[in-house]
Amino acid sequence: MFYNFKNVSLVIATFNEEESIEYVLDELKNYNFFEIIVVDNNSSDLTLEKVKKYNTKILMQNQPGWGNAVKQGFEYASGEFITYMDADGSYNPKSIVEMYELTNQYNFICGSRYKFNNYSEDDTLIRALGNSIFTFICNNLLNLNLSDSLFFYPMIRKNDYKLISPKSNNFGLCIEIPYLLSKNNLTYTDILSLERKRYAGETKVNTFRDGFKILIEIFRMRFLNI
Predict the structure, then answer these.
(1) Residue 51 DSSP code
(2) 12-21 in b/e burial notation, b at 16+ Cβ within 10 A?
């Protein structure tokens, strides 16, 4: 089936994804996006050579950190809506269909791996437990209502994104974007989006180091209001 998303910009952050990026972009051939923006963090492998075979726009990441890659892509995007996917093949693009259908009811929509007590095929027990703890903290400290605070699979209007100025340059951005949007009284919901086992490559997330950074970001948002 062919899906038409002629007003949606898709951002993909890459760093040494030569084993999986073609799989991801091939899978997206059935989805007609306004644009696909690849933000590359100076990959040292064949990632860029493979990306150039496809109809994509390539940005070289200008500041370190996953969060900065996402922000750079979102700021560059010119579609009416923006969404994001990782480059490891774990995201199921069919979720974009459901999120897009809800854009006439909500200002932004978030994908969730754990809604209705589901699980991620690409998770470890420690990461799943950590996510449960962070989601509890976010919902209580930041007054959010999410079932998966650390899965960044959004559908956001570009004009709504312009209302906020997220500061996080790491995975804390997963939380900061919905937090800032909700503070602007924008309506949101989350949908079940089952995360698949990554097609190739290794996770770029360090459970304890990145978890600590995210915790710092949460406390910055809640208590420093910056």
Answers:
(1) H
(2) bbbbbbbbbb
Sequence-separated (6 or more) residues with CB below 8 Å from residue 223: none
Proportion of the chain above pLDDT 70, given as a percent:
96
Interacting residues of 79 by C-beta distance below 8 A, sequence separation 6+: 7, 8, 9, 33, 34, 35, 158
For the chain, how long is the longest CA-to-CA vector?
48
pTM confidence score: 0.92
All domains in the chain, ordered by first residue = 3-224 (3.90.550.10)
What residues have CB less than 8 Å from 174, skipping those under 6 apart?
149, 150, 151, 152, 214
Residue labelled with tokens 């990441």: 61
What would the pLDDT profile of 38-55 be if each residue is shown by its tens digit? 999 999 999 999 999 999
In terms of Cβ atoms closer than 10 Å to its own Cβ (0-12, 13-18, 19+), residue 222 is middle
